Amino acid sequence: AYVRNGRLQRGNEALAQITGWSVQQLASLDLAALFIDTADYERRWALEERELRVHGRWRGERPLRRRDGRLLWVQGAKRLVREGDPDAGIIATYVDVDARHRAEQAVALQAERTRAVLDSVLVGIVTVGAGGIEWMNRSARRMFGGDLADFVDQPISAVATADPQHPFRRTQYLDDLVEGQAETFECRVMARDGREFWVVGNAVATGRDASGRQLTYALLDIERRRQAEARMSEAQNSLQRLIEAAPLAITLRDARTLRVMHINQTALAMLKRPFSEVIGAAPEDLFAPEMAATVRRDMGDALAASDVTQREYRYDTPGSPDSPTQVWDARYLPLAKPGQPPDQLLLVATDVTEQRAAQEARLAAAITQREMLVKEVHHRIKNNLQGVAGLLQQIAQRRPEVAAVMSEVIGQVQAIAQVYGLQVGVSGPLRVARVVEAITASVQRTFGCAIGFELHESVVDWALPEAESIPIALTLNELLTNAVKHRSTPPEGDAGVRCRLSCGVTGEIGRAHV
After folding, report:
1. For the residues of 422-434, what is the DSSP string, one character each?
2. Which residues, including other chains, have CB under 8 Å from residue 46's CB and lie 6 or more apart?
3. CA of 86: how far to CAs of 43, 51, 82, in Å?
4. For position 508, what pLDDT does the model report?
5. Closest Cα partner for 382 from 409, 414, 412, 429?
């Protein structure tokens, strides 16, 4: 366009397409019509006119208002037709750069949005170019203990410790990393206030800017995690020392395979196996088949339970038949993270062999003492009953009129005394044969009558409970007494009364026949 005295004198077809005015309309168009408004024209034209008067030309970019009112970014250039004489006219050229300008605006807007997002994340983001730090987000500024102005154009090694191999001192990242490639590291960082802490991060080559290649560092403060790991490691070491020093057999197994993950020396001493054979071993590798099946079943029950599961095992050392049987009190505890199924099973066992042996010895002594007391009671009852029988015999001798009745009573008392007498030297049930034989002898002494006694071979293993001994003894006494009273006169040399005992089974009930 040719401009003179603030008006376009003529313009070409390209300018007509840019502005929306026809070539004929451009020939008399006021220059202010190509600006946003009058104020914009006055402000911009004052600057342009000054440049033209001083330098004879002007160049720049500005929005141009088209005929339809839409704004279009153009790159303009103006020069004087005659140097030093603005009144001679101006040659103006315009290039449509609207698409490029809008693209740059979009990129800049996206960059601002990206930086706003990066400012809100907890990860420290630092952009480093050839000249040093160019930008860092809020997390990185807080991490390094300063503002962006404190670090701009400073090398990132300004926050590195004295370690010569520190990742922040590796300047080759800027040249060697391929765009998009990341280098991961973990290191200590020293903030401006002297505070040191651990970070984990990576360096990514993010391309080039106007000044050259760029690196973007993403850093995460892991100082608390490191401290927690250190405390956890210390606690685990303390627990390990405690487990090793404890006089308990402690074993840690995998919940899924039930294989040994850890075992202390006391448990190894119990198994009498080397450490290399026990680690990774299943129950079937350590115990006999029957005990291994029991242990595996108990471990399954313990994993299904939420509380401590207690079991007791009797363990014979493999290959040592002369070794005494060991008794172990075992307690299982499933270990799990909150809300998760158990992943480990803890076994704590105590050798209670001596305690169980002492308990069994006390129990045996108590049983022996009880048996002695019972025998003593039975012996005294027998003596007392025999004393009662003697008194009854004296009464029968003094009172002949009641001698027959007294004789029957004396026989019953003697029968009961015989049962108690048999229990003095015997523990447990009484043998049927001995009861029948004792009652037969008692009746024989009472009446002075010989009784033939015969045992069948089937009687050998038959026995009577204590509660049934006296009723049966009284029944036998009655039978034999009646037999003696009602016997016929025996031939010479014949006993007159015979007693034959045989035992047999009818169905499921045992019966004795006399």
Report:
1. HHHS--SSEEHHH
2. none
3. 18, 11, 7
4. 46
5. 414
What is the C-alpha to C-alpha distance for residues 297 and 284, in angstroms, rounded to an integer?
12
Q: What is the DSSP letter of 192?
A: T
Q: How far apart are CA 360 and CA 366, in angstroms?
A: 10
- Residue 413 CB contacts under 8 Å (≥ 6 apart), including other chains: 385, 388, 389, 392
Which tokens in the block code for residue 300?
């399954």
Please provide the DSSP assignment of 128-178 as one string: EETTEEEEE-HHHHHHHTS-GGGTBTS-GGGGB-S-TT-GGG-TTHHHHSP
Q: Two tokens at 466? A: 């204590």
Question: For residue 335, what are the contacts with CB-CB under 8 A and spacing of at least 6?
Answer: 255, 342, 343, 344, 345, 346
DSSP per residue over 349-383, as a string? Answer: EEE-HHHHHHHHHHHHHHHHHHHHHHHHHHHHHHH
Residue written as token pair 């987000």: 137
The number of beta carbons lying within 10 Å of the beta carbon of residue 58 is 20
Can you spell out the DSSP letters for 238-268?
HHHHHHHHSSSEEEEEETTT--EEEE-HHHH
Please give the pLDDT value at position 464. Answer: 77
Q: Which helix (H) or strand (E) holds 22?
A: none
Specify whether the CB–CB gap between 64 and 71 falls below 8 A: yes
Using the CB atoms, write b or e for 422-447: b if 16+ within 10 Å: bbeeeeeebbbbebbbbbbebbbebb
Q: Which residues of the chain have pLDDT under 70?
A: 207-212, 317-324, 374, 378, 420-428, 457-461, 489-496, 505-514
